[in-house]
User: Fold these one by one.
Assistant:
Number 1:
Amino acid sequence: MKNLILMFISALFLSGIKDINSVTKNNKPSHFSFTKGADGIIKLNELAAGGTKKHDEFGYEEDWIELYNNTDSTLKLEEGKWFITDNYKTNPCQYALPEIILEPNSYLLVWCDGLNTVENEIHSNFKLSSSGEKPGLFFNDNGTLVTIDSCTFSSLPHSQSFARAADGAENWVINNKPSPGKSNH
């Protein structure tokens, strides 16, 4: 059954679904219910709060979340359908991702610096707290907000990240050598 759901959601991503009718002007669903999604397609893979040695396009050392395409297929994430947040329980539609093409087994870095802009890189409208957060990734399926992935992290010191032990793995670890946009070690 899980494989059937995974294939169905993968087909939805690749089919180029049109915009949904229940999206408001700010790209958030006007109503929604929560459903647990196709585990494994796209993962929150690593994140840093409080800075690492990675600098954004403006030269600043900022917080970030890394997404990972955990499939052997190219995925199109449509604008207004995908959301990331720093608090999946209270604000699941905090930041609408722009349209993105994720190549197989590739990484996408989203800066969590509060700039709310897309220049050469994606900058969300929120920052991560180094004292801990509950980030999440959601898909808006015709008004049903599907939880694709989420995690909870505690305090993160400067220059450390919270990462999956291996790309897409279930176990999370504190990483002393952050690897944004690269494979986790």
Number 2:
Amino acid sequence: MDDGTTNAPSCLENDGTTGETNSLTLLNPCCTIGGASPAIAFKESSTAGAASLCASGVGVVATFFNDEALAGSGIWQLTFPDHTFFGCYSLAYYPNLCHFGLGWEYVYDANDGAGGVYFYDFGLKVFLYTNPSDFPFLYDYSSLHWLWYYYGTSRYFYEFGGRGLFFSAPG
């Protein structure tokens, strides 16, 4: 619906349908975003018992982001069930993700049953893999080594079996 404003839309429980026929159930709470591109973000789950997926006006995002929460103004934050903080990021250009520490990452859902995700890291110019249980470890497919991401350090990594501690400019 377009009312011609930049106001955030409203989320009304049990008010209308998407017009689609599927086995998905929208879960509360719904999040809304105002501004130049007003949007509704919501969690959905399959009545068939599949893992929940998140949509934010850009289609379904990788299951890696299942526990994300809207921090406000289109900024999301993610803390995994083990209380590991992934960080804050924007999905405005998804599948390009702008992470406030890692920088720009291109996201591919690993579809591995572990909530895994592949990132193409524009700073390192490599493909990385992680999942909610492994993060802040990231597997680097170019060096074939695991990296440890030092969250809050702006791009310091430790490469196990390789170059040790190093800094990479964001992409």
Number 3:
Amino acid sequence: MKAILTTILLSCLISSSFASTNPVGTEKNSILSNSKAKAFEFGVIHIHRQGDGVTLAWNVSDNSVVESFYIQKSYDGTNYFTVGGVNAEANNSWYRFTETDVFPGFMNYKIVAVLNDGTEVVSPVQDIRILKKK
């Protein structure tokens, strides 16, 4: 019985973290940069548990217009706070951020891209549920 419950809980956790991944084009997340006149979009975004933390990995459509990214987190889906940031790199279209030592519970994450002209583009919200610390 315990093995069955564990299997059900694990499959729910895995399916919820994959269900929150948004492929390109499923949600509107683009904006036109005034200075470069190029469209910017988030590509694939993955969220998963890594040890006692949460890792976000994403790619972007045009890296030349991005200055940096910052990651925001919420426990209620309304009130977000910044948990870290990543600088953009000229030859990199894939990025990764890990928040270490998160507490169990349901969390929402979003990535904010800061473009060269100061415009901010917000990704679709990514959800994850951590059942317990490892």
